[in-house]
Amino acid sequence: MSHNANLSDGFGSSNVNEYNEWEARVVQENRQLDVIMSELLISILNISGEARLMKDYFVENPMYGEENFRGRFRMQKPLFLRIVEAVTANDRYFQQRRLSPLQKCTGAMRVLAYGTLVDAHDEYLSMSVNVTRDALVKFVEGVISCFHEEYLRRPNQDDLARLLHVGEESGFPGMVSSIDCMHWEWKNCPTAWAGQYVGRSDKTTIILEVVASYDLWIWHTFFGTPSSFDDINVLQRSPLFDDVLAGQALKVSYTVNDRENHMAYYITDDIHPSWVAFVKLINSPQLRKHKLFVEHHEAARKDVD
């Protein structure tokens, strides 16, 4: 015999209905209480995570000073705060108060700075894996949206004139920047792709090609090429000289040994091919002038290194 049937025998159908309504109200109220307690607990954890972050880095006398901040975030604190302010104003995602903009941006920046998993800092910042992943994507999108017009572009005529002036002051008239390639380990490379991305080190890596100037401005990046390539044949895929081939390169004029030239060049190591666009390092210099050239060459290349 059912529970409701027993109640009906003792109390009547009206009492059974009242009991059912009371039971339903209790279940609903318990559910509401569970939601309130969960939100309260999350709020407490978020507040503690934000308070911990503020105490460690962002109060007037933080536990970790400017030097520690730069070492852990790979940038100065004023620059980081400028980025936080820009991406917060640009995207409502960072304006939502469940987590502070500093928590979200710090979580994203820690993943970028150390290349760690998204769950590596969840306890410290009181952020779940999903929130950290979303914050990372939104942070990268925000940086690109806010700063691409200024920092993700090729040099204009004024920039080129400044770069040529600095190059001439360094003893390299006509030099615009330094170029170099490096092999970057790809820890999470898909198994199906691993074979083509394994290089000399027997690790899955990709090639990163970069052009950087004296002020550490990165004018050109090209990455993703399998490590079975090298500094020479990666140029066959790189868009570095697309504007030159299309006849859209900026005009350059400089004089060396009383001869006027109209093609700018990059300084690079000895691995790159012997093209007019590259001034390479001299290996094992013997003559005094060659040694002097190597000294100036290495000093100018330290930016991209």
From TrEMBL:
Pfam families hit by this protein: Plant_tran
InterPro entries: Harbinger_derived_prot (IPR006912)
Superkingdom as given in the UniProt entry: Eukaryota
Protein name: Nuclease HARBI1
